[in-house]
Design a protein that fits this description.
- By secondary structure, the protein is mainly alpha-helical.
- It folds into 2 domains: about 60 residues, Winged helix-like DNA-binding domain superfamily/Winged helix DNA-binding domain (Arc Repressor Mutant, subunit A, Orthogonal Bundle), CATH 1.10.10.10; about 130 residues, Up-down Bundle (Four Helix Bundle (Hemerythrin (Met), subunit A)).
- It has a two-stranded antiparallel sheet.
- A hairpin with a 3-residue loop joins strand 1 and strand 2.
């Protein structure tokens, strides 16, 4: 029987492969049927993911993949920057075994870029950062980075990242080259630049306005210059006012209740 750990790992992988979008519903019964296990095991897996910040639950709506806010997006990238730069900063040397593993991962990235499996490409590009932590001997940070990488993948989908996958792979190659050359400081600088580039590709506003959508929708409808009433037209309107019912006056302002009714 499938375990809760296996289910949670599969969901994380699906998120990193961009196969589960932000806001996707995760039904307990459907997952239990899919993994051939009890709903209790599914609920345990989803509860773990909720603790890790990947899914959320509502008493009435059920389980859903998170939809990070703009503030949460900034915090996630800040957290990754602190973790990954700190991981590199404390390095003294990278052994040959770790370098071979990192180069093997880069070969898989390049193959995925040349292929048509977009999901595998997305997963490998994100998993590079997890692989780096594992190769440097810190499994605890690797687990933490896996969760943050999944969150930033959701953020990239939600805020329509324009970052180029080929550029990410090229950044990874330069980081590994710097590690192989023993230039840890340069590798750290390259990682900082890489994370900043990925973050800057997001379509985030400088400041978040929770009423922005409603504010735009309910803004007054202004007339264009061509629609503005000229003095001659105004005189003509006054002269014929008695013969034209008010409701047919083309210059009469739209009824606010009618406008809101059409909107709602």
């Amino acid at each position: 029987m499938t375990t809760a750990t296996e289910i949670s790992n599969r969901i994380i992988e699906a998120v990193m492969a961009q196969k589960l979008a932000p806001g996707s519903r995760l039904g307990e019964q459907q997952l239990a049927m899919l993994f051939d296990c009890s709903r209790t095991i599914v609920r345990e897996a989803l509860t773990r993911l909720a603790t890790r910040g990947i899914v959320t639950v509502s008493a009435r709506r059920g389980w859903y993949v998170i939809e990070p806010s703009q503030d949460e997006a900034r915090e996630a990238f800040e957290a990754r920057r602190v973790i990954e730069l700190g991981l590199l900063h404390q390095l003294k040397v990278v052994d040959k075994t770790a370098l071979r593993q990192l180069k093997s991962h880069l070969q898989r990235e390049k193959a995925a870029l040349a292929g048509t499996d977009v999901g595998m490409r997305s997963f490998l590009l994100g998993d590079f950062h997890v692989c780096l932590a594992e190769c440097l001997g810190n499994s605890l940070l690797a687990d933490t980075l896996r969760d943050f990488t999944a969150r930033t993948t959701l953020i990239a989908m939600l805020y329509q990242s324009s970052h180029d996958a080929a550029q990410s792979c090229a950044d990874h190659v330069r980081i590994v080259e710097a590690l192989e050359a023993g230039d840890i400081a340069h590798a750290e600088a390259l990682m900082s630049e890489h994370i900043g580039t990925v973050q800057s590709a997001l379509r985030l506003q400088a400041s978040s306005d929770p009423l922005a959508g409603l504010r735009d929708a309910l803004a007054p409808v202004s007339k264009s210059p061509a629609q503005a009433t000229s003095p001659a037209r105004a005189r003509k309107s006054r002269a014929t006012k008695s013969s034209i019912p008010p409701a047919s006056d083309p210059d009469a302002p739209a009824d606010a209740s009618t406008y809101l009714g059409a909107l709602l």
